[in-house]
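Homework-ish question, so no full write-ups if that breaks the rules, but can someone show me the predicted structure for this set?
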Amino acid sequence: MKKSLVQLDDISFKYDTEGDYALRHVSIDIYEGEWLAIVGHNGSGKSTMAKLLNGLNFPQEGSITVDSLALSEDTVWDIRDKIGMVFQNPDNQFVGTTVQDDVAFGLENHGIPRDDMIKRVQQALESVKMEQFLDQEPHHLSGGQKQRVAIAGVLALRPDIIVLDEATSMLDPRGREEVLETVRILKKDHKMTVISITHDLEEAAKADRIIVMNKGELYKQGTPEEIFQLDEELVSLGLDIPFPVKMSKMLKALDIPVTKYHLSEEELVADIWTSHSKM
Amino acid sequence: MDISLKNVEYRYQVDTPFERLAIKDVSIEIPEGTFLAIIGHTGSGKSTVLQHLNALLKPTGGEVVIGDRVITADKKQKNLKEVRQKVGIVFQFPEHQLFEETVEKDICFGPMNFGVSEQVAKKRAREAISLVGLGEEILSKSPFDLSGGQMRRVAIAGVLAMNPDVIVLDEPTAGLDPRGRKEIMDMFYSLHKHKNLSTILVTHSMEDASRYADKIVIMQKGQVYKTGTPIEIFSNPEELIEMGLDVPEVVKFQQRLEKAFQRKFSKTCLTIEEMTEEVSSFLKRGDSR
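A: Not a homework solution, just the prediction itself:
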């Protein structure tokens, strides 16, 4: 039985007193141990939602509960212990003068004993393959390297939930895959829940569940399989369709008997192989 | 305007304990009207190369030729304004550099800094805003009231308003949604075509490099690893994957398919249309057995 860890109950939020709502009547359950991808066009409310989750902003209407704690000014610090956030632009999240100081910052704030701290900093940096940069100044790193350090800073705190807000968008493909793989392993080993706000549809295709946001509202939720059957509907929302789905569709249009719109290339190749051997 | 880099070397913080070699022996020819993509890992030296293209950095070795200006280590450079006007750089997240009260003032800032009159600058602002696909009504708004995608376009308009001959784009679509990404890239491509604007695109997106560029440079560990047309570069996907780089989805797919069928297709497909066509004719011929 899936256990609901976070509940967003009918939340609405706007940044200014005037102007439009950035989020309108959104209700979502986030389950323990799941990988949830949140997709949507720029301005659809994805990042706003992330900021509400750990109390950077508070909704005008509705309520948020994290691990049975109702989010409020009083509980916000407890909730921030449970949710680690990694943002898109690494330049905005550095405080330390060296890489290891930066990763240690959060741990120091939590009063982690020094021996343990040294170990955790080292582990966190190893897991993002930045252990050779311990004494470098963050500002001398490339964008992708910085982002890996930022992720290490969060990983070191071992939160129950990690929110990646477009956190891999500045990385090169291998860097991105390494970071995601790191998060996958941590998720498994520490039963972490992952909320990934992303434009990367190949990544979303590997999530347990996808939420599609559109103009501040929850448009649809479902498994990747369900969501990507929406096809052109996704394109009209400013999104795209993963390559294998697109390819399946185009082959079908040419009367090649593919059995369905495949989410993975392996499946599609296998399918083409089958139809080939029947010919 | 042609740009060429000849055996360029750059060291950060020379003669300090922090001295670090960022690029070496980099030679790249960028004749006028080229669409060049530079790909490579984070840390491969792409951004360092980029900053040489309008003399933000002076090489510590070799020479950079920008139009008729020759920039070398030993020569003092005076009056680089002209170079900077002719080569416009759109940095990563350019919207972070917006600062004026109105969009119009922000766009006019660059040209006026280069000595253009306010009247002309305003005219250019109107042209630039339409080039980036926004309406003139946006000119009077505060840039900070715009959406992320709009802000990015305004920042790009600010570069275009300087009437550059060359435009350098550092990951111009990072953080945009798929539609925004396509719109921005199509916009740059049409500017490139219609205004014969040399375009240099630094990107992680192999899809964009293969779709838009005439020529691709692969950087690795501070050096040029390879230069070629998209078809030359992507015809040998194993090599790129070995280097930890990506290849376009369609190339990856072809590779997988060829492996499954134990057979090479006659050509490397760079678009999904070509690929579907190949697969279809291959299956319908049924001559693989």
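Now go work out the reasoning yourself. Hint: Chain A touches chain B at residues 40-43, 88-89, 140-145, 166, 169-175, 199, 201, 235, 238-240, 243-244, 246-247, 250-251, 254, 256, 265-266, 268-270, 272-273, 275-276, 279 (CB under 8 Å).
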